[in-house]
Amino acid sequence: SGSLTSLLPPPGPVTSTPLSTTTTVRPTTITTTASPAATTTVRRAPLTTHPIGAINQKGTELHPITAAAPSTRKPPSSNQHVSPELFCEPKEVRRVQWPATQQGMLVERPCPKGTRGIASFQCLPALGIWNPRGPDLSNCTSPWVNQVAQKIKSGENAANIASELARHTRGPIYAGDVSSSVKLMEQLLDILDAQLQALRPIERESAGKNYNKMHKRERTCKDYIKAVVETVDNLLRPEALESWKDMNATEQVHTATMLLDILEEGAFLLADNVKEPARFVTSRQNVVLEVTVLNTEGQVQELVFPQEYASENSIQLSAKTIKQNSRNGVVKVVFILYNNLGFFLSTENATVKLSGEAGAPSPALVVNSQVIAASINKESSRVFLMDPVIFTLSHLEAKNHFNANCSFWNYSERSMMGYWSTQGCRLVETNKTHTTCACSHLTNFAVLMAHREIYQGRINELLLSVITWVGIVISLVCLAICISTFCFLRGLQTDRNTIHKNLCISLFLAELLFLIGIDKTQYEIACPIFAGLLHYFFLAAFSWMCLEGVHLYLMLVEVFESEYSRKKYYYLGGYCFPALVVGIAAAIDYRSYGTDKACWLRVDNYFIWSFIGPVSFIIVVNLLFLMITLHKMSRSTAVLKPDSSRLDNIKSWALGAIALLFLLGLTWAFGLLFINKESIVMAYLFTTFNAFQGMFIFVFHCALQKKVHREFSKCLRHASCCLRSPPGATLGSLKTSAIRSNNRYYTGTQSRIRRMWNDTVRKQTESSFMAGDINSTPTLNRGTMGNHLLTNPVLQTRGGTSPYNTLIAESVGFNPSSPPVFNSPGSFRESSTSLLSSSISQAPPEQQPGRLRHGHPAPQRQLQQQLLPPQC
């Protein structure tokens, strides 16, 4: 095989002697197969840089620099059968025509017309595209650069040269002009220092002459600083940013770091040549500089920069910090604010903390604020401050940026290279638009933030928004149905359903507030109010859920439900406990209600524990009561095996309460994981569970409850009956309905009476003649129990037969004739009430099974309700 080396075209004539040439050869080799017997090897062309001759060389005669002939790559001839995708297409970028270039090759072309130097552009290997960063025009300089460099060498007045440099940079500039201007300012600073030495006061001279020298020194420094600030403003204006981007990344960092250092040195040079107290301020659109010289022997006040105008960016030094850094009773302070400079201070190797999504690519780190600098006596960056410096910076971009990091630019004065660090800095407060930081040292500060890709953020935001709106609307409808059911159906007016009703009301209000107010972070007053209400109603929901566990336990340990309702105690625990927690939290730190991301509780200062702590306590208490309830039921069922389904109901209710507890608990577990890790998976889980809580409650407490089904059936039957009957036939329809309900009394009512009396009869028989057999026999003999009850005077009425005789006789095979319930005169309600009252009143009070521990005939009232026609 033959090896062919690509040849460069012969260079054009060089009209001047090159002052400095640095050649770097990178041995990247690309091999293309032309035929089975031949290969073509092309080596990358050397990268040649042409530094500005007059800036870094002394004692060398200056000559105009002209560009060398272009170095281009010609595509191989067609007979080599090279695939066209091996070349980057020809294109024009930055007023330079770039030819078709082989992959992995670096092509060099003359700089744009009107500039001097060589530009380069790389065709990326394996991709077949040009470098997305664009061409490197770092060596492209305007003719005026050599002119200013020549004047610096000749020793002209530094302030005048600085003014000329400012004038040149007002027009179009190129990448080489930016870096050259910064290097020229560095040389001007050395010349200015030497010129100021010649103006020092001399003891032998008269006081008037020395005064004139001091005045000239101060005026020269001020003129120089004004011109340099104007030059920096020109380099940072939006039109010049493209020139910065034409540099490579290393050159950008080096130039930006030099600019920071040179402007600070010039400001302290001015501070050394003014008499205290003094204050000098020069302001431009892209840079603001302030020099303050204070006498610290008297009273000292804090310094705030800037003072001349209202600004969203500020920095504050305490009076204690100023006195701490006093030197011989004098302190010199320099403040500088830069616009657009942070774009070119690389975030690579930055020591910041970022939280990203699991499995997702790391977010891009960007400088999302202006750069603000504060220095005292040139060495404050290495001095620990007793009182930290406080600064507030506005965010350049509000959307798709998160994780604010208070950082400073840590650089080496020798290499003029650096990196962002958070050492000694902490975050005080942040929102969507601003961040406040505190640092224990002084230097150049900025806020670094993670940047999320716009399209990913919008897609996830849209999907989460759809899930939230659809799910919460469904939940609100389900919760509204539950609230209506528990409020308007008479048969459901129990303590347990009161708990369910208030649980639904709390969740309904919480979900409604979540839907309309969780993202209203732009309202400074409304957002904290929304956060406080969400805090309260979600705590109330957990409290009512815990009260259900307590109520189920009390139902288990009591034979009958207490005649006295516990509703007032439940209301006290369900609403007062959350109010107490929220009140204490607001009294401690009301400013922590509402964040830049959502109208919720702050996480960074642990304020979120005012929600996590009470919820964890409530969950533990609830689980404790529910576990005790299930344990007691398992023991009672194993020993007694009662005929009633009461324990079965309590068991199913307890299991439903546990399921609901885990539902609410998991929802907020996902929410906390999302807050801490910002995982998109946790965001979807939290949004989904939170949105459909109301639907789950509807299923557990309404759709699956037979009692709710029966109450709705009664309402429907009563409504249809009222609609069919004319107004005058109401009494007759009631009588007919009562007669037809006779069979229901001997069927459905018997099962209810049997359940109601089962536990009471068992208690009585256990305490009388069967007390000795209960431990040996798990269930009662039906014949024995029937014989006992048939002879029991408690169940006999004055009229002879009691409705309970039928029930008991049916249990043991005895069938007396049906009681004449409807033969007595009067209305149905009167006959049924008198019959029940007469059957129970014959027994002594202590033997009346209808009386509870408080002496109230609850079973009698329940039976009366059963005999009445169904009502809503």
Could you give a short description of this structure?
By secondary structure, the chain is an alpha+beta fold. 47% of the residues lie in helices and 14% in strands.
From the structure above, extract its key features.
872 residues; alpha+beta; 5-stranded antiparallel sheet; 23 helices; 14% strand; disordered N terminus
Your description of this structure?
The protein is an alpha+beta fold and 872 residues long. 47% of the residues lie in helices and 14% in strands. It is built from 23 helices and 23 strands. Strands 11, 12, 15, 16, 17, 19, 20 and 23 form an eight-stranded antiparallel beta sheet that branches. It has a five-stranded antiparallel beta sheet with strand order 13-14-18-22-21. Helix 5 packs antiparallel against helix 7. The radius of gyration is 45 Å and the shape is elongated. The termini are far apart. Residues 85-144, 464-705 form the G-protein coupled receptors family 2 profile domain. One of its GO terms (molecular function) is latrotoxin receptor activity. It comes from Chelydra serpentina.
State the separation between the terminal residues, measured CA to CA.
101 Å
Q: Which outline best applies?
A: elongated
- Rg is 45 Å
pLDDT < 50 runs, ≥5 residues: 1-70, 72-83, 356-360, 638-643, 728-754, 759-872
Q: What count of helical segments does DSSP give?
A: 23
Mean pLDDT: 73
Estimate percent helicity: 40-55%
Strand content: 5-15%
Helix and strand composition category: alpha+beta
The biggest sheet, with number of strands, parallel, antiparallel or mixed sense and barrel status, is: 8 strands, antiparallel
Number of strands: 23
GO molecular function, one term: latrotoxin receptor activity
Protein name: Adhesion G protein-coupled receptor L1
Domain G-protein coupled receptors family 2 profile: 85-144, 464-705
Membrane topology: Multi-pass membrane protein
